[in-house]
TrEMBL record:
GO terms for molecular function: phosphoric diester hydrolase activity. Signal peptide: none annotated. Coiled coil: none annotated. The lineage of its organism: Bacteria, Bacillati, Actinomycetota, Actinomycetes, Pseudonocardiales. One of its GO terms (biological process) is lipid metabolic process. Residues 2-256 form the GP-PDE domain. Pfam families: GDPD. This is Glycerophosphoryl diester phosphodiesterase. InterPro entries: GP_PDE_dom, PLC-like_Pdiesterase_TIM-brl.
Amino acid sequence: MTLVYAHRGASARFPEHSRAAYLQALADGADGVECDVRLSDDGEVVVIHDHTLDRTSDGFGPVRERTLAELRDLDIWTWKGVELPEGAVLADQLLTLDDLLELLLAANRPVGLAVELKHEEPQEGPALEDAVLSVLGRRGWTPHRSRLANVDVSFMSFDADAVGYLLDVVPGRYLCQLVDLEYEAGTERLADGSVGIAGPGTDYLAAYPEQVRAWIAGGSRARVWAVDTAADLYASLAVGAQEITTDDPALIRSVLAGLPAVGPREPVGVG
């Protein structure tokens, strides 16, 4: 079975990381959701991708220089050019990690949560990792199973130091080393099996499919991102990827539903 993770929620339809995007992902039947996390000025773990606010809000400057209250005052919706769903409230769209956990816990079905830790400056140290673990711990999460009620938690980063820090706390099977053509640090942990999930981008997969196959053959799971076309999906399935991260979980699930229930296949067609 191929698991479908919603990349920043159903971000093809609604603004990435918004409450509406995650609710839509659950409605679309996503097996899990992915989120990026950063720290606010007052140490809260907020769900946002970019280092700065400029692209996805009416604010500007580094996320790290705003308090949570200041971040909640921003409009993170209008840039996408879509209407709010009926009943949705603009002020509720920005999420903390704890907000997202609450939303997933209310899903009343098993769901995965892939938390990507974003780092720009090495001197930041492990403050973000510690804050994330603290948020989870307050909810009753424990690292040995990395599960919180119905929510299975895994952790991802391009930053090999962040993955290494978490490896001292969390079993490697719950850790994902992200790689693409520009960032290949940490692949030795995939080679030796200390980290259990390989996270290649579609560009890396296209360039090095045999490497991804080798990681899978060595016992790793592969979580390919961001798979938004049928062609990328078929390429992922061809190497045996067990997990797909996509902006459009409804589309990918519909394509998967139309495929025969067989093992890895060669890419066919173009989507």
